[in-house]
Amino acid sequence: MEKIVCFGPGTRFKGGIANYNTSLAKAFDRIDSIETHVVSWIQQYPAIVPREFIDKESRQNQLEGTNINEVYLMDFNNPLTWNKTADYIVDLKADKLIIQWYNAMQGLPLSRMVKRIRRKSKQKIEIIFDLHFVVPKENSDLDTYFTKMGLKTADTYIVHALKTYQELILLLPKRKIKLNFDGQRSRKAPTALKLYHPIYDMFKPDPNFDREKFKLDHGLKKHVFLFFGFIRKYKGLHQAIKAFAKLCETRDDVSLMICGESFWNTLDSTKVSTKIKEATFGVMKKLFQKKEDDEKNYHPLELIKSLGIEDKVMLVNKFIANEDVPQYFQVADAVLLFYLTATPSGIESISYNFNMPILATRVGHFPETIKDGFNGYLANNQDIEDMVRIMNQSIEQPIDRANVETSTKLMSWDNYAKVILH
Predict the structure, then answer these.
(1) Using CB atoms within 10 A of its CB, is residue 171 exposed (0-12), middle (13-18) or buried (19+)?
(2) Lowest mean pLDDT among 74-83, 238-247, 337-346
(3) What is the pTM of this model?
(4) Which of 11, 98, 286, 363 is the most exposed place for a label (fewest CB within 10 A)?
């Protein structure tokens, strides 16, 4: 049997990358000829990062009923575990190692791990980096250094947008990376497989969900817009709130749901340990992060009160358990992705699982995946009036959800896994 190792955050962790790594592993597990392993971080980031990363809300084990073996080995803060993880993968005699790449700081431990695997393995292991970005959203010279360190160790890359490939070849021009769309690898140079962000199948619509009762219980109006996921500056929640408030000046039949956790507000701020982490992390950010990327003073939820729309907004400001995700997508009419910058979005993928029209800004990969007027609408970035326009348009000229289903029917995890195995 071919052995596949999916390296990234395991099922204990919050967020889209953990869901992604889990869903990919489950797709391989459904293939009879594949033996699948998930090798996870214990700690993904430096200990000074002031955030809770463990999912303490979800109740179901996402790997239940599978044959997947999941282990937690890699600790960012303990270099001994980098070697331990490499040796474990070598001992498995893995054929492919698929590494989820989503944070530049991880370039150091991942490059060390990969180099040790290559040195100690007696068989050829294909090292695949599944790229959720190349240029970090909060970019610095140090980020670029660690990104090069990590990514130059790969045999194969997976990119979900042409923009990501373009950034990759600019970052590593000497590697002469070839672009491919069907899974074929070049024999003469590393290959970047242009795929897609598969549709999350872990979030399934509840056929018994009473949409009208939910709207009545929560005071939602006829037309419901949804912002979902971690609240980060690059996701542009401030733009969504301002556009919605302006929409409310001419309509009284709309509601906005904001469902998600404030990314940098997950620890008890009164604890000494939290204060120490915040102080230390603050110093590091000043050294390595551009001032305009600092999210310390990003408080978009305060706009709800200042704009006087409290009675029109349903706010669920916490991490949403996996089991509770479907209800918010089932009650909404459209999802707002008014991002400032964008790499392929897990929220977009979740939305497609519910055949949900998307309203997004023309940034990043969105013009590749959203056909304006067919499966969603696009607005100009940082143009509140244009965002209001497409919100109105989504009401007056609603997107046929059959169009959304048509545009995503080939974007399954099973098809994705088969291309990787090519």
Answers:
(1) middle
(2) 337-346
(3) 0.80
(4) 286
